[in-house]
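Give me the fold.
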Amino acid sequence: MQWFMTFRIALRALARNKLRAFLTMLGIIIGVGAVIAMVAIGEGAKATIRAQIASLGTNVLVILPGSANQGGVRFGSGAVRTLVDADAKAIARELPAVAFTSPLVRRQEQVIAGNLNWATLVQGVAPEVQQIRDWDLADGRFLHEGDVDSAAKVAVIGETVARQLFGNDTPTDEVIRIRNIPFRIVGVLSRKGQSSQGADQDDTVMIPYTTMQKRLMRITWVQTILVKAVSAERVEEAEEQITILLRQRHRIGPERDDDFNVRNLSDIAEAASTTARVMGILLGSVASISLLVGGIGIMNIMLVSVTERTREIGIRMAVGARSRDIMLQFLVEAVVMAATGGLIGILLGIGSSELLKKWAQWPTLIDPGIVAIAFFFSGAVGVFFGFYPAQKAANLDPIDALRYE
């Protein structure tokens, strides 16, 4: 009952100065709203980065040809043609830390269907690339070993290519032409979206790598080898095994540099996630300053309130109120202002996040844990910054308080 009466008295005191109470809460409202909105932006950015990295395939290693050095001029990666499909088969066959491998050759080509054409990325791959990239099918089937062995003229197309060449029609079993060579569409890939570099992953045509080598590019080497490790924990082990095996296969002596490069996409994912995490912490920290300013505002107003209500405090003490009752009353007033401001701030933060997502197309993600923390932190601000004014009120001398004008 005492707590209920104290709460009623606190609400009545705040209701006497509604505008002042609201302006005092405004700092908390803005602070909590800003924290939730900024953290939502940071979490949304992290989720987007994770999705983009995942769309490339998990536990993936990329093997590229090495660089060349001629006459003191150093060329970049891919300057030498050192990788062949037999390397990919040996990696899959001999290394226990590797689950799947796929040779990859690609080139930008003009694809024609009927009276429509579209410039897209044509990729020569092995059937295992579907498991490496974790890429589902929207329709039809993927490439199989028979297509590779016979260098078949079949293709699996991405969602963007399907839309540009066939509109809303089903493209499976239709024919497209690449360099005037007919290819039968056997499947349509499900939507992947943009890569971490902003490229449209659905703007692609996949054909058997043997077909790409023999019919389109007239080559016997491969540009890249994609590798998927057995698990995320064994990626580094797979990287070491690949390096040892390729050095043996390419007959590279102890004193010579590798003629290939092995790149770990897990490092890229970790770097991107770390950047997004730091950005989220920075945004949240900046927004938290508003909460501190709001707390100082509560302390300021509560001190003013103690001064204005000194005579009231003296009367309450004269009729039997104890110091802890006076302290509790002012402490409850501060907490009520902070908690009410926190609730309004939560609504403001969630609403702002949804508006950013809808109108600015900015990815946001509301974390319920952050919402709970922001609310409890706003209440803690009320207790922390309301304690000194409440203690000051409780320590007033009743006689001096009664004589105060």
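The first helix runs from residue 2 to 15.
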